[in-house]
Amino acid sequence: MHYSAININEKLKKFSDVWSPKIIAKMNNYHFKLVKIKGDFIWHKHNETDEVFIVIEGEMKIEFKDGLVKIKKGEMFVVPKCTEHRTFSDHECNIMLVEPVGTINTGDAINGFTAVDNVWV
Amino acid sequence: MHYSAININEKLKKFSDVWSPKIIAKMNNYHFKLVKIKGDFIWHKHNETDEVFIVIEGEMKIEFKDGLVKIKKGEMFVVPKCTEHRTFSDHECNIMLVEPVGTINTGDAINGFTAVDNVWV
Questions:
Q1: 3-state SS track over A76-103
Q2: Is the pTM of this model over 0.90?
């Protein structure tokens, strides 16, 4: 049987839209997604799950109601569930997310940033 | 409140033993672990879970009963549950694993390679 690895940078070359996560792998009931971000996202929280951010290229920030974290290439961060947060980045930043199947990118805040779910790249 | 990112390379500098996964983050009931490998691991399978390998540095291979996959820096692979596999690497390779809390590195094969669980770095 033929097995092949998933190349993260090759997957990133396949799309250019921002704030629109694309699935690249499934483990149990979790998805690994790539997303490109630039500018400011909206405040939201995920009531059912923690959310993992792994920065592949660039630098991003996550603002909380009581603080801020800067995450750069080669770094990761886990946003605890039920924690209001807002992601932003001055320049384009490429991120890998890990979250349960069906997680909505805007969590409890459905608006123009809410992306179509279940898109693979 | 003070928030800080987890720097993967800084964590890798904190240990040198091989085949001994160290936890760096927890998301829901999953652990993100770093492991250094060199040489040959044993055949085993995980009956309860898929297993994610993300290569941070170097190159590794996973042999299956019916094939083989090569995974290099910047690539990832999901080993499906119940799938017998054997990891190996000619040179030291640094990997991030994602698996449920309590997953034993040797799966159903307890032997000299079985690492102590729940070690954080």
A1: EEEECCCCCEEEEEEEEEEEEEEEECCC
A2: yes
